[in-house]
From TrEMBL, chain A:
One of its GO terms (cellular component) is plasma membrane. The keyword Membrane does not apply. One of its GO terms (molecular function) is ATP hydrolysis activity. Keywords: ATP-binding, Nucleotide-binding, Transport. It comes from the Bacteria. It comes from Thermoclostridium caenicola. Residues 2-228 form the ABC transporter domain. This is Putative ABC transport system ATP-binding protein.
Length: 230, 404
């Protein structure tokens, strides 16, 4: 599924060099639910960006679904982001000028899906996150929890094999957090692999496995005992 | 990702910033409309002039005497004109044109007169249209009868009525006048400023046989200008050349290049050339404003790219390729320019008719002008949109996502 070996990432800003990842290796099997934890600046966001094919690795190897993606071009990476990966962000990242429905349809626009099929699949994805009303509204007209559900619908609409969630509940209160985590667990139960960055132990406890990072290295990797199951 | 999708997205984005989009378009609107107005007025002017020339006669040739070289004996006499018409095969009509300033008196009124004399062919050569009566005939010409055809405005001013056929009129110089019978009235010609000027102030235009005119003013009766009309377009040149040859034979001045034959259509070409150059020049100046409009489009697109950095990041994260983003922004700038172009076209045509009605030129809007205007405005959109669009397409997705 996901296999990275000895991956480093170095940022250069003029004279200053910043090594964000110092030889990280990780193997995630299909159907896993991994929480990546660690203090800020530990490199967990960098890891997520690399796994999400938003950024290229400096050295090492990244195999996604049996394909070496460390050598792909920008447009090939865009294709993989579109087909294989679904992103869920802390700040939802919905397009404010589009309706809920249009937001969910957008990944399929880039995939070249015909309009009629787009509409049907978007409605289906929205139904899976329990959101069938207000779909003609704009993101600013619905609550934070609803926005994150729209973002999840958008992430799953192209039926990706992996969902990458970067602090998906960071901007939400406890009650809504539970709602969102229930949806993510459901998706995981249906076979979608989930990688989630979080710094809250409560949230990490919804996962099946926890990876701890510090200073650009993985320092701990263990299965979750007494997992919270909704 | 097809074109319709892009156009829909671009329209939504333009619509969400109505005021800004309109102001951006304004540059294009002003540019296109001024170019359209100038070009269609210029072409309208050319059409008007061409039309006038064609009315006079596409087959007309002007025979002139080079007055700097000519002696009195070289001038073209009435007998020469007669011979031209009889002897030269391709000539259908021939007339000299004498123009004399004089005086015309009716019982009611005295008026300045502008007297034109020729053969009876003058009627066809000058394409005179009569409202009442008739033009003088060959017999009246040969005998030098005191008959006159006067302009409509002269009739109204001298007799206070329009149909003055059969009335008598004293025509001549201040000292010597002769009594004439009016046999025709010329239809009112559209004269510039005719509405603004009292017709009493316009000189009376009077046509009469050249023979009569000659007697009236006691002239030598030779001229430097003769109009001939060829029987067909193909024979224009031959008619001119043969006419010059005949005149040279009759005056025995071959080799001195006294006479020159010039088809009127050639003059038209020259006038149209000058007008064309002038139109192009003014249009080029107007096109500069289009360029400024294009820079405005680029400016706003750059602002728009910066404002929407995060949006671009999101789009890239969910799978938009470089080409998708490039095309999205390019579509937007092309649509802005195109809408500007179409509005500019409408305002330009309206402006051309507005200005045209003031200047007395009816504008000519050719399909070519319309097509070029639309194509040119899209080209402006592409040219000035490509830089901002490339900038947007090349944004790094992570940095774009982080942008606040």
């Amino acid at each position: 599924m996901i296999r990275i070996e000895n991956v480093t990432k170095v940022y250069r800003n003029g004279e200053i060099q910043l090594t964000a990842l110092k030889g990280v290796s990780l193997h995630v099997k299909p159907g896993e639910f991994v929480a990546v934890m660690g203090p800020s600046g530990c490199g967990k966001s960098t890891l997520m960006n690399l796994l999400g094919c938003l950024d290229s690795i400096t050295s090492g190897k990244y195999i996604l679904n049996g394909k070496d993606v460390s050598t792909l071009s920008g447009n090939e990476l865009a294709y993989i982001r579109n087909k294989e990966i679904g992103f869920v962000f802390q700040s939802f990242n919905l397009l404010p000028r589009m309706t809920i429905l249009e937001n969910v349809e957008l990944p399929m626009v880039y995939a070249g899906v015909p309009a009629r099929e787009r509409r049907a699949r978007a409605l289906e994805a929205l139904a899976r996150v329990d959101l069938s009303e207000r779909i003609k509204h704009r993101p600013s007209e619905i609550s934070g929890g609803q926005r994150q559900r729209v973002a999840i619908a958008r992430a799953i609409v192209n039926k990706p094999s992996v969902i990458l969630a970067d602090e998906p509940t960071g901007n939400l209160d406890t009650k809504v957090t539970v709602e969102i985590m229930r949806i993510i667990q459901q998706l995981n139960d249906e076979g979608v692999t989930v990688l989630m960055v979080t710094h809250e132990p409560d949230v990490a406890n919804y996962a099946k496995r926890i990876v701890r990072m510090k200073d650009g290295c993985i320092i701990d990797d263990y299965p979750v005992q007494n997992r919270t199951v909704l | 990702m097809n074109l319709m999708e892009n156009v829909k997205m671009a329209l939504a984005s333009i619509w969400s910033n109505k005021m800004r989009s309109f102001l951006t378009m304004l540059g294009i609107i002003i540019g296109i409309s001024s170019v359209i107005a100038v070009v269609s007025l210029g072409q309208g002017g050319q059409h008007t002039i061409t039309g006038e020339f064609e009315k006079i006669g596409a087959n007309t040739v002007l025979i002139t005497v080079e007055s700097s070289k000519a002696e009195l004996s070289d001038y073209i006499t009435l007998e020469d004109v007669k011979q031209l018409k009889e002897k030269v095969p391709y000539i259908r009509y021939a007339t000299p044109v004498f123009q004399v300033q004089g005086q015309a008196n009716s019982r009611l009124k005295s008026k300045r007169a502008y007297i034109i004399g020729g053969t009876s062919d003058l009627y066809q050569v000058d394409n005179i249209e009569l409202a009442y009566g008739r033009f003088y005939n060959d017999a009246e010409y040969e005998e030098g009868k005191p008959v006159a055809i006067i302009s409509n405005s002269a009739a109204k001013s001298l007799f206070k009525m329009e149909d003055v056929v059969g009335m008598t009129l004293d025509i001549g110089s201040d000292s010597a006048k002769k009594s004439f019978t009016v046999i025709g009235v010329v239809k009112n010609q559209i004269e510039m400023f005719s509405d603004m000027t009292n017709e009493d102030n316009l000189p009376a235009i009077i046509y009469m046989p050249a023979t009569t005119l000659k007697q009236l003013f006691g002239m030598y009766g030779a001229t430097t200008q003769v109009y001939i009309v060829a029987d067909s377009k193909e024979n224009i040149e031959s008619a001119g050349n043969l006419a010059v040859k005949l005149l040279e034979n009759r005056h025995g001045n071959r080799g001195r290049e006294i006479y020159k034959a010039e088809p009127l259509m050639k003059q038209l070409d020259q006038i149209n050339n000058v007008l064309g150059i002038f139109t192009t020049f003014v249009a080029a100046v107007a096109a500069i404003s289009l360029l400024v409009g294009g820079v405005g489009v680029m400016n706003i697109m750059l602002v728009s790219v910066t404002e929407r950095t995060r949006e671009i990041g999101i789009r890239k994260a969910i799978g938009a390729r470089t080409g998708h983003i490039l095309f999205q922004f390019l579509t937007e700038s092309v649509i802005i320019s195109c809408i500007g172009g179409i509005l500019g076209l409408i305002f330009g045509i309206a402006g051309a008719y507005g200005l045209g009605s003031i200047a007395g030129i009816s504008p000519y809007i050719s399909p070519g002008t319309v097509i070029i205007a639309i194509l040119f405005s899209s080209a402006v959109g592409i040219f000035f949109g490509i830089y901002p669009a490339r900038k947007a397409a090349r944004l790094d997705p992570i940095e774009a996502l982080r942008y606040e």
